[in-house]
Give the backbone structure.
Amino acid sequence: MSEQQKPSAWQRLFLYLILGDLLIIAIGIAGRMLLDWLPLTSFHLYFYGAQIALVLAALGLLQLLYGLYKKHASHKSSGALTVLLGLSPLLLAVFSVGISGFKAPVIHDISTDLDNPPIFSITNSLRTAEENSLEYAGEEIAREQRSAFPDIQTFLSDIAPAEARQLALETIEALNWVLIVDDESTGSIEAYDESRVFGFIDDVVIRIIPNNGGSQIDIRSVSRVGLGDLGANARRIRLFLSTFDGIQSKAG
């Protein structure tokens, strides 16, 4: 094999490797969406596939730099393509959760009330022993939440609790969450939300109590699996409160 042929073989090898890696990632996503694979199975294929893709992207960058140095067009084009394909899983993740998601602390339980978080009742029976506990970890995670998400606070409304509860149910419906229980006696509502791609389920409890002629609304969101959540639970709480506020404004 001549010296001119060897680079061509390496170029093809890098391309085959990155395409094979992306195929594995695609199979993981398709397995979850079409074959109901476990969320963690599909996520692990994506996570480790993305890491391999980053290694290949680094090799592609070296190839691109070599092509620029040697003014070798095929090395430049092949290296650039490998870099682009290798970075695509990471770019997709950044697009989905944002830079802030990767900066989020490794916690999976977020609440608007850190001193007296809303308590789950019925949802406890839906979780297995292998899934995260719904027992609040206290100051251990409260400190991290205060630092990372200072905007997650109790929502105060001037409408009566009964009306607020009805608006909360409308908000859950608008967000396509699944309602688990609506307990009028305690003002507590439990529901869950499922992520679109990997199907991770996060449980939500909403507590509505009287407050100076209006209502005090607290919401807590907890992931069923995983140590961290890439900021998903905080985003969910923000989305609920903004949607609730929008519905309340229209109703008023």
